[in-house]
Amino acid sequence: MTTNDFLLEINQIVSRDNVLTDDAVLADYAEDAIPARPEEGVEQALPLAVIRPQSTAHVAEILKAATKSGVPVIPYGGGTGVMGGASTTKPGIVLDMASMDKIIDVSLQDGTATVQPGVVLGDLEEIVQHANHFVGHDPWSRPVATVGGAISTNGVGYLAAKYGPMGRQVVGLEVVLPTGEIVRTRNLRPLVSAGLDMTSLFIGTEGIFGVITEATIRIFPELEERRHYALEFDSFQQGFFAIERLFSEGLAPAMVDFAQEDESESGGQPIIADGPGRSQLHLSLEGGSAELDIQEQIVWEIVSAYGARTLDPEVAQSFWEDRHSSGLRYKEARAAGQRHPWRNRGRDARAGSYIHTAVPISKVLDLRFAAIRMFEEAGLNVVECAIWGEPEMFSIIAIDPAGSPDGWQRIRETSDAMITEAINLGGTIEYCHGVGVRLKHLMPQELGDGGVHLIRSIKNALDPAGIMNPAKLFD
Ligand SMILES: Cc1cc2nc3c(=O)[nH]c(=O)nc-3n(C[C@H](O)[C@H](O)[C@H](O)COP(=O)(O)OP(=O)(O)OC[C@H]3O[C@@H](n4cnc5c(N)ncnc54)[C@H](O)[C@@H]3O)c2cc1C
Question: Whose CA is nearest to atom 51 of ligand 1?
Answer without folding.
Answer: 80
